[in-house]
Amino acid sequence: MLRALVAIQYDRNDMDLNRGCFRVRGDVIEINPFDKIETNFREPLVLPKTLSLNIINGILSAAYSEYNLAVTEYHRKSAARDITVLELLFATGARVSEICSLKRSDVNIADHTIKFYGKGSKERIIQIENDAVRNAVSNYLYFLGMNELCK
Fold first, then answer.
1. Helix intervals (H) in 19-72
2. CA distances from 127 to 50, 111, 120 (A)
3. 84-94: per-residue pLDDT in tens?
4. Whole-angstrom Cα distance, residue 149 to residue 83?
5. Is the pTM higher than 0.85?
């Protein structure tokens, strides 16, 4: 029926949409021929809310001051870990689970790359060019006793 409507040349006056019935060249059709057309309307994508740059700077400043005020080796190592996680989160957009599952072989300081394994074991290699992130990762690896990665 829709093909018949398309094939027929019609004038806007020939179609009466306001009364719930349709006329095509004088004939009355009781059903809406457009009901058979399938349409997919997408809902607008709602983007997640992000932190402002001031809040991010505040979080990183607090982490770095915690590192500078650390007295024991344990506190310094913990602060270095926190700084590394925060820097990687903000710089790469990686998920927390991806950062927590990083292995020594996934980090390559010489090539400035980190290999993340995401959902479904999807592998992503991220280039790290930010000096603060590279220094944080190198510093944390130093505390872990992995000095050969920092060369």
1. 53-69
2. 22, 8, 21
3. 999 999 999 88
4. 18
5. no
